[in-house]
Amino acid sequence: MHKSNFKIAGLIIALSLSGLLAACSGGTSSTDGNVEIGGEDIEIPYIGAGSTARSLVLAQVLEDVGYNVTSTQVGATGPMFASTAENKDTLNTSGWFPATDKAYLDKYGDDLDIYDSDNVIDNASLSLAVPEYMDDVESINDLKDNKDLGKSVDWTIVGIDPRTGIMKNTEKGLDDNDLDKWDLKKGTELSMLSELQEAYKNQDPIIITGWQPHWIFNELDLKMLKDPDKIYGGNDDHINLVFNKDFQAAHPAAYKIATRMADDWNKEDENKLMKRIFVKEENAEKVAEDFVDDHTHRIDKWKQDVEKK
Question: Does residue 26 lie within any of the structural domains?
Fold first, then answer.
């Protein structure tokens, strides 16, 4: 009789410990439960080469569990941050912090939630960039009072949309670092890349606003110039998810999936997909779909405990 009672007590204790260990291990325990979908409509604005691949992969995964996702390519960082701040159903995968997008965080930060427990991309770098064949230019300081270099490129740095963080930092850097002879040409990413490729083909000198990861650095032999005055904030920038401040409450499962993706994404994923989209010119949505199909073991972890609709 007493032995039976001891066995029952021991079983109860064992089951209790088992439940506790499951909770601590992060498994599918009752402490977590299933994460609900919440609101079904989600918007993901993204910028060209800057975030097409990761944005469309995330959109594909969210659609697989029942969300209606609108993915929209926008022309610049400013509109992307504005739409994220204004709409509770919006997130983007393109926050460059702490330096590049600081101005947008200062402007819209009260309406945003930055996920920085882990970075989508570590060590994202920005600077001016030139082809490797320009062997007499290694640093931004090499532009100062360099008449031969200035004349060879008409004292022009080829940039992109003025509503981006890299352009704002470049303009400020030119004003603050004795580079006032230089002009920053505004345009689009596409027009900048077109000029770069034409110059590269003819082995002509050219200076552009550059950032990595970007597919062009895998296709052309380019170098980022040293930035001794930290015009671009040094080498500490990284890329983070940016949510509207009410997004997590409105879409709990989407928030869970997106942050798990951020913890698992890497530059290798980015570079492979960017090459298919921008070099091989494959359909971007098909490339994202292929990635999801080819990485089911990873995607299943992103979706773990999510109530599929």
Answer: no
